[in-house]
Every structure is written in structure tokens, then in C-alpha cells.
Amino acid sequence: MSVRAIWLLGLEKGTTSVKLSRRFPTVEKRARNFNGKNYTELPEDKIFLNALLTELDMTELDKNFVEHRDSCCRINRTSVYEIAIGDSVLWPVLVMTQNAILYACLPLVEQSLTPRPPLISLRGISPAFALLSGLMTFLNMTQRSEPEITNKMTQISAMLMHACPLGTPTDTDFGLMQTLSGSFVPQNPISSVQAQKQPAWKPGIYKGKPQVNVCVTEQIRSMQYDKNDVIDVWQEYGTVTCKCDLEGILPTVTVSLNLPINGSPLQDILVHPCVSAVDSTILTFNSVDDVDDSLFNGPYKFPFTPPLDVFKLCYYTSQVPIPPILGSYQMKEEEQNLKITVNLKLHESVKNGFEYCEAHIPFFNRGPIVHAECKVNHGQLEVSREKSLLVWVIGQKFPKSLEVSLTGIVMFPAFGISNHSVQLTDPFCTGLTAYVKLYFRIPDYTLTGCYVDQHSIQVYSSAKPRIITSRELLSSEYYIWNSKGDAPVASRPLGSLRNWE
Q1: 61 vs 108, which has greater pLDDT?
Q2: What is the value of pTM for the model shown?
């Protein structure tokens, strides 16, 4: 849903002129690939203007017969034209007229032009019409004096970077855009010569208090079985999220990721396109390689020119030696009742300070829980409203022993699933195939030890910003399977360690 070019053509006092022309080279390259041998290159503005006026019968030659325009085989479509450029044609060109201005737009056709596809199948038609309508509404807000129209045209050139970044229309309300932003006021001729050129991927300029916010988020996945013949597996992966509120067109920032001496090296690093340079040694290590002492362990420096919105500076993985919580789950069936035992142990190297920590114990295909006689040595146990899930709220800290346990019996109706309530069902989790799923968040902590020192962040901007850094560890698909039943087994072990001692 992109456009190849936009033109605003003036028709004042019998003269014609190109008031605004905007082309999108990245979209043009796509058009060349999509349209193949039927691709027609965009002509110069003057050539396009003359060809369009000829198509619209607005030239001195409009009294003469033109084959492609006046033939009885021609099927006219409102506002959509086929413009002859030499021996080739541009199609579909959308044209609208208001107050002596022609608004023209050429949307991208994402397929071959032979045979000619129906207009209703072209995804770019509607966004192109919306874009032209937005421009017409914006210019119609003026008193139509020449100085004011010229001023509006200057603003439109800057506003198109926001409304149509890289040729894709995203916002067509130019009036609201002008109201909400003060960054589209045209610069004076002196300052515009000295100012940096604003890139197409950064459509606006921030105005306000400068601030840089960097957050390191690590997530840990785990599959634990408590079986001698099945290996426990886990995987850790991290994301560095940034939000840089900095004035100026191209401020630059350098963020460094640091590891402690015994921290796990970062691997499989992917960086955002805004990163201008990165040490090649940072990108050469892959998680499939054997971990050894030669791995690069930081600091990992990323210089970049930040976009306006929140963005992911980089992604990484790491082969951490242990999962933060090791657990075991045993569930045995006795008639319509289930006898369950859950043991969880927090590793001594992990920070014992949670924002939340819960263990959810679902029961599938059994109907509602009639009664639960369970005992926990720490935290609180609740039965969900649907009565098919036990929620063990462990709280914000493990006890001094770093171990918690749950034992008890869960009772179900004698005739299976009740039709009077919505119950958990899963064709896979039948019989003794069951699991406990952990949910937790540990603020100001990462399993690799990765952190961002706010004093090491370098910012090259007109004002000194406030710098905020944070880190956190989150659970993600953290399962402990019933050791008395069957369970899915990972095909590739990422780590294994059942005994910490």
C-alpha cells in the first residue's frame, strides 16, 4: 500500500507549474521488480505535467484527435487515468482538481501490469485517494492567497515525511498533524543552509525535556521433567529497549552493555538498523558454538541515531548455566481424586526479590474442582473462579531455606466434565500428562548479569539529558512437567543441571 510519486500542479492565470513533486526511490525499486517488462520509469516533472494536461484536454492541442485518449475503445474511469509517456504508459494515475490545483498520485501496483488488473484488486488505490483528499483539505483551509499557498506548500514538503514515510501513507489528516506538532514550520533561508538534512525515516523533531531511557529485559524459558532419562532444558534471551527524547535532527547516543567478571557472554546479537557501527567480534559468536573462555564478554558498545519512538536496540541470547528456579511436580490419580506434590527451589545466586511469583497448576478434561485439601509451607493457595486451576501465590520472597512446597489432594466430580461451567480442555494433556507453569518478575536483576551503567552512556546533543536505566528478569513458558506421566521432550538440549550441589 505504497505510492511511487505525488505531484501538485498549479493552473493559475493560464500558466502551469509544478508546485510540489515527491518521489520515493525505495518504492520505485519495488515497482521495477513487480511490473517487470511493463515497468515505466517516472519521467521528469515537466514531461509528466505536459502528458497529464494532454490526457485531461487542457492543452492547445485538445481540439485535435488523440488516439489513446479519444478512441471509442477507451473506457473512462473517474479520477483514474492512463498517462502516455512516449511509447509507454503510467497507470493508474489518480488525479483530483480543486481551486486551480491538480493533485496527482501514482500508487504502486504490486503485480504485473499485463493483463491489466482490476482497480478493486489494487491495495494502493484507497490510501492514495486518502492522501490526496488530505492534501486538498489542508490547502483548502487557506484564504487561497499566493503567499499563504506558498507557505502551505513549504509545510507540506516536511509533513509528507510524517504522513508518508518511505512512500507508505500512514496519516492523512494534515490539518490535525499541523495542530499537534510545531515541527513543520518552515525554516528561514539562512538556518536551512546550515541545518542538517532530515532523514526520511525520522519524520519529526522532538521538542521538550531531554531524556534517555534504557531497559534490559531478559526472559527465561524452561522445560523441567525431574526424570533420570530426560534432560531438563532452558534458554535465556534478552532485549534492550530504548526511548530517547532528544532535540535536534540527528543526535547520537552510545549505549554500552556490561557484564560482571563471571557473567555469561552474549550471543546471537541482532541490532536495530539505526546502529551506525558495531565491533565485528560482537556479532561473530553463535549459540550453537561451544562455550569457551575465548568468547567476547564486553563491553558491548552500540552507537546510534535514535528514532522518535520506543525501539529495540538489540536482541541477544546467552547460555546461562542454571535456571533461576528448579522444580519438581508429582501428580498421582486415585479414583476421581488427584494427589499432588510440588517442590520449588530458588538458586542461591539468584536475587531473592520478586515483584510477583506465582505457580499455576491447571487440571484439564476433569471438570470443576469440587474440593481441594492442600497445604503450602509458604505463600497462599487459591482456586480459580472457573474451578479448574490452582493458583499458588508465592509472593515477593522465598523463605530463608529458598525452598517452598505444596502437597494435597484435589477432588473432582464423579461424572467428569460439567456442562454448567467452562472448564479447561486440552486433547494433549490427558491422564497424567500435566504441568505447573511459573510466572515471575525480578526487578533490577538479569540472569547473565548484563546491565547498562548510566554513567557510561554517551549523548551528543544540544542539551544534557536525564538518563534512566533499568533491568529485569521475566519468566516465559516456564514449565515443570509431572514426573509420573508423559511429557513433550525438547529435541535440542540447551542446558542441563538437575543437581546444583
Answers
A1: 108
A2: 0.63
